[in-house]
């Protein structure tokens, strides 16, 4: 198995790259999806969120009111740290399970772990390669306004709540620049896939 850590800030184009790699045949493990699974009704993490932040965050159907929780933690580092301390261990447990399942299914799999908070988290996984998808803050603000309906101030707050560009780039073995067109970003993802196929077959990959 060849394990890739794929990261990038909000609206960096990371999901576009992850989807493209999956189309080529990578096993895509999405940390955001696992974070949703980790707080589904009946989970320990959801109960801890209720105990920590208040039962008003649990909707009548038993699910988490994610927008309300987001409003509580984004822009408030202490509250965000409390939430991360609950959710991250649960996500890591799910991640280990998914990685083991992928390796069992195909020992030669190229696994892309798509994780926005790689720079913020001390992850226990041994990555063969870390790929950072990077775009300027102004590009990302524009995307958040256009695609997610945020105000400019909301977009800046979201970006500021994550690691800085410099912190992410310091981790990178490979950088994909997504400031350009979609076609340019996809072209870089295609080139990355070709490189991953080669690297994963090298004797050092194991």
From TrEMBL:
Superkingdom as given in the UniProt entry: Bacteria
Keywords noted in UniProt: ATP-binding, Coenzyme A biosynthesis, Cytoplasm, Kinase, Nucleotide-binding, Transferase
EC number(s) on file: 2.7.1.24
Catalytic activity as recorded in UniProt: 3'-dephospho-CoA + ATP = ADP + CoA + H(+)
Pfam families: CoaE (PF01121)
Binding site for ATP: 11-16
Cell compartment(s), UniProt: Cytoplasm
Top-rank EC class of the record's enzyme: transferase
Principal place of residence: cytoplasm
GO molecular-function term, one example from the UniProt record: dephospho-CoA kinase activity
InterPro entries documented for this protein: Depp_CoAkinase, P-loop_NTPase
Pathway stated in the Swiss-Prot or TrEMBL entry: Cofactor biosynthesis; coenzyme A biosynthesis; CoA from (R)-pantothenate: step 5/5
Transmembrane segments: none
PANTHER family recorded: BIFUNCTIONAL COENZYME A SYNTHASE-RELATED, DEPHOSPHO-COA KINASE-RELATED
Family statement drawn from the similarity comment of this UniProt entry: Belongs to the CoaE family.
Name of the protein in question: Dephospho-CoA kinase
